[in-house]
Structures are given as C-alpha cells and as structure tokens.
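Apologies for my clumsy wording, but are you able to produce some protein sequence, whichever is easiest, and the tokens describing how it folds?
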Amino acid sequence: MLDSLAEVLPFAARRFGDKRALVSGDRSFTFNELDALSSALASRLARLGVQPGDRVTLYAPNSWEWIVSYYGTLKTGAVVNPINVMLTPAEVAYVTADCGAKALIGSPDTIRPALQAGVSGLTTIVFGSEPVAGTLSFEELIGTPAAFDPVVVPPEALSTIGYTSGTTGHPKGAMQSHRAVMLNGAMTAQMHLKTELDTVVTALPCPHVYGNVVFNGALLYGLTLVLHSRFDPAEALASIQEHRATMFEGVPTMYMFMLAHPELEAFDLSSLTRCTVGGQTMPKAKMEEVERRFGCPLIELWGMTELAGLGTTFPSNGPRKLGSIGVALPHVEARIADVGDPKRSLPHGEVGELMIRGPIVMQGYYGNEQATRETIEPDGWLHTGDLASTDEDGAIFIVDRKKDMINSAGFKVFPAEIERVMAAHPSVAMVAVGGQPDEMKGEIAKAYVVLKPGAEPDADGILALCREQLAAYKVPRAVQFVDDLPKTSTGKIMRRALKSLDR
C-alpha cells in the first residue's frame, strides 16, 4: 500500500497512463492529465506559501476541479479540510477558523457568500471564469504546466480534518491519517473487487467520507469515475446506460427515487454487476426491489466520518444478508457493547452499541480533547452511537441511532424498524419516522410518507401493515403524507428536521 494520498495520482498515472480516469460534466480526463493538473496546482500553492501541515479548505460541489484541488493540496504535504456545501456561511467561518485554514478553494457560488460572512485572512482560490473580488483564479493557477514532486510524509501524518454534521453545538473536526484513508479505500476496493475494468457512476458528495472512499478507490485502482455534481434520478440512470457502468454507489434515497422514476424500465442497466448502498439503513423490501429491477446485487455498507469511510460491509463475491451492514473490514475489529458498560461485549442477538477498533479510527477531534475522550476508549475502541446486534454468523444489523430512539411510556421504539415495515407497502416510495411529544407517554411515533407516483394515500392500510408486524407500542399514532423529506447533501434523511413538516 502507498504511504500517502499524495502518491495516488503519480502511482495511477504510471500504471494506467492515458486510460480515462474521470468524467465530470462534459469533460473527461486521463490519469496522466489528472496527475499533471494536480502537480501544476501543487506548484502554485507552494509558491503561494502553503506548507506541509497547513490546512486547506475545499468548499464546492462535485467537479473535476474539486478532485484536482484535493490531490494538489495533498501533494504539498498540506492537510485537506473538505466541507459540506450545505454548510451556512457562518458555519464555514467557524470551521475555517477552528482548523486554522491557510487557504480556501471553491466555486463562486460558495466562496462569495463565505467571504461576505466574514471569512478572511485566507488565500482564496475560485473555480471557473467568473471573477470574485479578492480571490485568485483556479484556471490561471493550473494554466501553466509544472512538475512537482509530492512532499514525503509518513503514513501516520495527518491528511484530513473532516467535520461532523454538528447536530448539536458546533461541528467537530475528525482527524484522519494518510494510513487511515488509504487503508479504508484499499480494503473497500478489495471487498468489492474493484478493478480497472470497472466504471462507477456516483453523485455522492466528494467531501463526505462515502464519496471520498469511492473516488479514492476508483483512482487508486484504475476505475473510470463518472462523477455527477448533484443527484438526479433520470441523469443517474442515463449515465449508467451511456457509460455502461458496472457499479452505482449511493444512499437509500437515491435508489428510492430511481425506483420511483416512471421511465425506469426504459433504461438499459444490464452493464451493472453490483451496486453499493450506505449512509443510512435501507428497508429490506426496497433492497430486494433494487436487486430485482437493476438486475445485480446491492451490497450494504456502513461507516462514519470518524472512521475515514467504511467500517463494515459484505464482500461482493461472498454470501450476503439483506438488511445487514456486513462484517468488519480487514484489519478492523467490531463488537457489540453494553450501553451501560462499554467494556462488556454482548452475545449474539442482544442489542447494544456498535464499537470499532483498528487503524481506520480517527486520531481524535481537532482541538477537542474532551470530545475525543468521550468517543474513543483508552484501549482504542470507538463509540459509534449506533445500536446494533449480531446474528449467529457474525453479521451485524443496525437497529438505529441512539439519539433517534423514541421513548414511549418507557418502551424503546426504533424509527428504522418501523420504516422497514412501512416501506414494504406498495404505495410507499419513502418513509421517515420521528418522535412527537405526548402528555401521557412522553413520546409517540409519527410517520412521514412520500407516495409513489400515481399512488393514493392509504394511511389505514399502512397502519394495518404495521399492526400485523409490530408490537402495539411501536405502531405510529399518526401518518402524514408529504411531497418530500428533509435530507442532507448526501441524501440521508434528517429525522431531526421532520417536525418542520408538521401541519
């Protein structure tokens, strides 16, 4: 395995040369071209004063410029701070100040409001031809070819500070070494048998760890990466057909939107050999429908920012269990711990907190020793915050997030369990369940349902299905039909925002 992420493109260029590496919009690039462009940027960044260990914030939607900026930054020995485009300007100001960013690179539509919000004192570089006052042009910086030898850094050196979503308080910056990110991409590629014969289509945001694993693995192992700036079901389906993609990688809502597309059957998806899904639990009924209509296996995976990507998945050429997130990656340990006593591991079938240990675990939260101690035990085990269990074969099943659990009259109600049942109803395209305050029970469950095109609301039928398969205390007390559900930039449903839909 390579020692650092700075070596990925030079290695790939030597091995795959003029093979097509990236398709972004109406442009495509070979491995040689990406390596040359990132070296040109690295040379200019170094001349602008970016030194090894400096932090460089990347703030833009998916694009070829983002990919070049990522590897160009790493070639200088600097640390990448990739941030979500859905962050508000005030949050960007906080993150760049918190990590001590030296430079900010992004698109005009993200950089301009960030500057207006008070982000200052940084070398700021903007993509495209649209000038932004007080910034440098990315196109001009890469316009003159320049050789650049990547700065040599040890595998344990800091490569990335990835900020968590910050559902309460300020977001926290998870620090990842080069080894952690490299190992995660390499082991994921091994589990899913990714090779230079593959073409992968994705709209996963590059700053997100799932998207990061996808593009790093693709470029490291010679795949052709077809990168969409945003997810659109028709565009994704057309892209799979046009490029004869062998893989699509996405989150559950992406698949649900594609399943609900009225012209799904008109697209030729026969080139697909496997797909992956992660970021959130996906109802088994929907996974079965994807496999049936896409004509290929759907491999579930699970990960988090604090793990530089995946922690568990199934191998693509082995047995799988739909509804399970699989087993730990090679070189990684996973166990189910007693919520009240994390040192005690639970037997098969009992629900506890999923904990992970191994070289992919973060170094800690940047500048936040208390949060680090709360998350990582002295013996290296990471608290994931996910409740899970294992079966007799060791397959891991996520029950729900600890913080999403509904306490109804003392009974534990897990939204994901209800969502899995409701998703099997023929009229349901998407569903999310959240808690509602109740004077008698403290909390009750409420379901928010997006219907399939042409389907009629059938709250009674949906609740009847729940009563057939769930204990009475788990059945939602209300069903509200909505046009859409609040989602993150990756397409994950934000349960904490469901109350904004109430009427």
